[in-house]
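thread: overnight batch results

M.L. [08:02]
morning all. the overnight job finished for the chain we discussed friday. pasting input first so we're all looking at the same thing
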Amino acid sequence: ENKIEELHKRMGNAFLQEMKAYDKERQRIDKMLDRKPSQRKNFQQNVSMQYALRKMEGAFKSEYESWKNQRYYERLEREIQQQNERGYER
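M.L. [08:03]
and the structure it wrote out:
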C-alpha cells in the first residue's frame, strides 16, 4: 500500500518536473519566435510538445521500471525468508 503511494508521488514529481521543463522551453521558443511568421511558430510549438511528451514518457517508464524491480526484489526476499523459516537453505 505504501509502495503504491510512494510510486504515485514519484511519478507525480517526475511529471511536474517534465512539465516545468516543457513550460520553460516553450516560453523560450515563444520569445525567440515572436518576430517569426505564425506558421514557423506553430511548427516549433508542435516540435516542442513532442519533445516534452517523449521526456515525460521516459520519466514514467523509468519510475515504472524502478517500481517493478522493487516489487521483484521484495518478492524474492519473502521467498528466501519463507524457505529459511522452513529450515531450507540455498
